[in-house]
Amino acid sequence: MGIARTGRSIVAIAATTALLAACGGAGGDAGGSDGEPVTLTWWHNGIDEPLNSYFERVALGFEADHPNVTIENVPIQNEELKAKLADALATGAFPDIFQQWGGGQMGEQVAAGVLLDLTDDVSSELELIGGSAAGWQLEGRTYGLPFSMGVEGFWYNRALFAQAGIESTPILQEDLDAAVVKLRAAGIVPIAVGAGDKWPAAHYWYNYALRACEPDTMIAAGASKSFSDPCFEKAGEDLEAFLATSPFQDGFLEAPAQQGDTSSAALLANGGAAMELMGHWHPGVMSGLAENGTGLGDDLGWFPFPLTAGGQGNAYSALGGGDGFSCSADAPPECVEFLKYILSVDVQTDYAETGAGLPVTQGSEAGVSDPNMAALLGFRNKAPYVQLWLDVAYGSTVGGALNDAIAQQFAGTGSAADVVDAMNAAAGG
After folding, report:
1. Does the global pTM surpass 0.85?
2. Where is the signal peptide (predicted)?
3. CA-CA distance, 263 to 254, in Å (whole number)?
């Protein structure tokens, strides 16, 4: 099923040995040498470094603790993975373990009966991760566990900001508009966006909605699937005003977000643009696309989405989400043990040390040493409200219509009112 792991390098085995020494058998005692052989097929989006090597270490570490278990480690590019999971929902052919973003999309999987209810087996893990589990729960039951929970903002190139004479990061929308003007004047592409994948463009509307709408309005709309509040149209109007500043690279409507040399991530990673709005995972993606193999290094900075005028939303609310995993309904018991292993303190600390995202398990924060990731962690912990990505929160039908309508707005063929109309139509309103 998919691309199975075939070889293990000396480097990977050495790294795993070090991790096992630290973990001391963090995965528990399920399975063992006397157990029947079990193969767990695992789909995830860690195709680039450092996630690819990290997930390899996780698989090897679990296998060492559970000699009867083989992990079929299947890394799949993010957009392809979403498509494969959509196909699996139609056919019922899910792998044992797979990437789970929670929210409305997970609800559709729960309704289809394809997810394992983890509730009774993960009480200790839920205590360790606290509120981070909310996006993977439905009606008091737990159907997935996050391993990373972060927020979104602008990743930027400090050197290009300095070259354009920008002395501080934008706080207000007018500051961001002014930065776009200065960067253009200096011959620098202000912002990269992979609008060809739709969701990176849609995230601008999401953030403007978060600034325009009160948290209670966002929550109520997610529950009722009714988007009549004027704040949703204001989000589109704020987006239209920003698009009028021409902030993006040539060809942004067709550009992919994270795939290859023409992606928006590669543009930022290689100094071809000054900024990109993206989530906590972005440094890890960029390092895999950087010509130097590492990315911007000390020139990489981060700041939250600016504040907008006239909105009802909390000024410091955050748009965010996480990465987690679910087990299919017919997965063997070792699948649950594997999820527990991923959330163990030592394995989560190792994840934090990769710099690819923010851990969720209490006690693993010490692994967050990168200043940018520490800034994200501080912003996440202080945010009074964190809104899950809207296409995830609203489910595939409304979320897909929303992303499509925003893509049309980016292309100049749709309006702020059209976006709201598309959401309500998709919801049946």
Report:
1. no
2. 1-21
3. 9
Q: What are the tens digits of pLDDT across the range 189-201?
A: 999 999 999 999 9
Which of 6-15, 47-56, 60-69 is most confident? 60-69
- Asked if residues 303 and 156 have their Cβ atoms less than 8 Å apart, the reply is yes
247 vs 130, more confident: 247
Three-state secondary structure of the chain:
CCCCCCCCCHHHHHHHHHHHHHHCCCCCCCCCCCCCCEEEEEEECCCCCCHHHHHHHHHHHHHHHCCCEEEEEEECCHHHHHHHHHHHHHHCCCCCEEEECCHHHHHHHHHCCCECCCHHHCHHHHHHHHHHHHHHEECCEECCEEEEEEECEEEEEHHHHHHCCCCCCCCEHHHHHHHHHHHHHCCCCCECCCHHHCHHHHHHHHHHHHHHCCHHHHHHHHHHCCCCCHHHHHHHHHHHHHHCCCCECCCCCCCCCCCCCCCHHHHHHCCCCCEEEECCCHHHHHHHHCCCCCCCHHHEEEEECCECCCCCCCCCCEEEEEEEEEEECCCCCHHHHHHHHHCCHHHHHHHHHHCCCCCCCCCCHHHCCCHHHHHHHHHHHHCCCEEECHHHHCHHHHHHHHHHHHHHHHCCCCCHHHHHHHHHHHCCC
Q: Pairing relation of β-strands 38-44 and 69-75?
A: parallel
pLDDT tier for residue 25 given thresholds of 50, 70 and 90: very low
Cβ-based neighbours of 230, under 8 Å, separated by 6 or more: none
**The two three-digit tokens of residue 71, written as one number:** 């992990």
Which of 212, 218, 254, 257 is closest to 236 using CA atoms?
212
Q: At CB < 8 A and 24+ separation, what contacts does 216-221 make?
A: 217/312, 218/313, 218/385, 218/387
> What's the order of all strands across the beta sheet hosting 300-304?
275-278, 153-157, 300-304
Please compute the mean of the pLDDT values over residues 228-233 and round it to a whole number: 96
- What pLDDT does residue 381 have? 82
